[in-house]
Amino acid sequence: MLEVRNISVNYGAAPALWDVTLEVQPGELVCVVGPNGAGKTTLINAIAGMHRVRTGSLRFNGRDITELASHRFCEAGIAIVPEGRRLFTQMTVLDNLELGSFIASAKAHRKASLEHVLSLFPVLKVKLDSPAGSLSGGQQQMVAIGRALMARPGLLLLDEPSLGLAPLIVMDMFRIIRQINAQGTSVLLVEQNVAMAMELAKRAYVMEEGRIVAQGEASELLTRPEIQKAYLGLETHE
């Protein structure tokens, strides 16, 4: 489905990603973890078409999308839930959701998509006419995820969905992400909550300083002493 091959991304003259390669197969839930400043958001924004790739290639469903115009990535089947949600806070919840179905292929299924989103997030049913900015942080994250799903993507990109949320809300959010994936949408999750992300994902990539430094089955990576020490705060003893 998604093939990222040896990509590099710059901010001006400053390199942000070096020679990054990863893939997401159809139906997979894959996570990218790492510390602040590792390049995770830059990577996911590049996959969403929001940052230009300097070298390397992006392929989605067999199609080279490296040079595709940014606004065409959603039409290709990729939707992103950006860090910080980026809702139109003065607009209603319904208006925010419907913006997600702007492309013609999604607009034709708007009613069914809205019903699906509200089945995932039933609390939003009574909030549809409320300004998005009046909702709690967790509810705003639901709207952001729902807006992306309204585009009917084949691949959902999630950038730090747990950021700023209470632990109980985070657990519920991750349960819903698992449900979305089980219903057939492939997911690439960028997350600082390493333990929860790796419990959720089948495979994982670890980033540091703009590079992939480890990859493999998420359950196997969690057993590595260097991962436990660096990201879980655990000291292991032979």
Question: What do you see in this structure?
Answer:
It is a single chain. The protein has 238 residues and is an alpha/beta fold. The protein folds into two domains: 1-77 and 154-238, P-loop containing nucleotide triphosphate hydrolases (Rossmann fold, 3-Layer(aba) Sandwich), CATH 3.40.50; 84-152, no CATH class. The chain contains ten helices and ten strands. A six-stranded mixed beta sheet has the order 6-7-8-3-9-10, sandwiched between helices. A hairpin with a 2-residue loop joins strand 4 and strand 5 (63-64). 43% of the residues are buried.
Summarize the structure.
The chain starts with a strand and ends in a 7-residue tail after the last helix. The strands form two sheets. Strands 6-7-8-3-9-10 form a six-stranded mixed beta sheet, sandwiched between helices. A four-stranded antiparallel beta sheet has the order 2-1-4-5, covered by helices on one side.
